Amino acid sequence: MAIDYRMGDIFLVDSNVWYAKLVKFLMRSPTIYHYLVGRLYQFVARKHAPLWLLRDSFYYHAGMMLNSTQLIEQQRIVEIDVISSLKNKKYCMVRRIDAKPEQLIRLASFMKADLGKGYDWLLIFGKLLTWLTGVPLFALFMNLPHKEICINRVAKAYYKEFKETWGHLPVWGSLGWSLVTTNDIYYYALSNKSYAILMP
Fold first, then answer.
1. How far apart are CA 74 and CA 120, in angstroms?
2. Count of CB atoms within 10 A of residue 38's CB?
3. Which single residue of 75, 95, 126, 158 has CA 20 to 30 Å from 64?
4. How do strand 70-74 and strand 61-65 relate by DSSP bridges?
5. What is the DSSP letter of 194?
6. 10-15+63-198 maps to which CATH number?
7. CB within 8 A of 43, min separation 6: which ones?
8. Widest CA span of the chain, in angstroms?
9. How far is CA 159 from the centre of its chain?
10. What is the value of pTM for the model shown?
């Protein structure tokens, strides 16, 4: 099915490379404790654990559409690419249904303001510590100035425009975007009427 790509759409991409598999595994649960309890639940109950404990991961990378032919994403740095770069990849689009044109323009401008900026390896380490300990403060505060990772740049733009937290506690405010994963966006969009998930 053809998709009418629109400015502000979030794309979520899958991959089978080893690091993508590792990221998808870590995103299955908020912490290692959720994961272990979820696995125990499945073993004892012989059925799927609740999604708040354990869920499947389908995507590991994220970016945003700028228009019908271009997208913006972070690989090593934030860069603009053509939509055909998604060809032959498994991906989906997450669309904010109620977004106004001026809001979509602002979303794109937030992303373009980060062009050329680099990857935040410290935040990756902070996220891992949060997963291992259950303490969100590591992911909230372990980051490098002016650097980010792909999913959190998208989450940050959506927080700026919509105060969107993707299911995380609003109490974290403007820092909460650093907790967001592609899994959070995917499952939140599935259950929230403000969003639609589009499959190619």
1. 11
2. 20
3. 126
4. antiparallel
5. T
6. 3.90.1720.10
7. none
8. 51
9. 12
10. 0.94
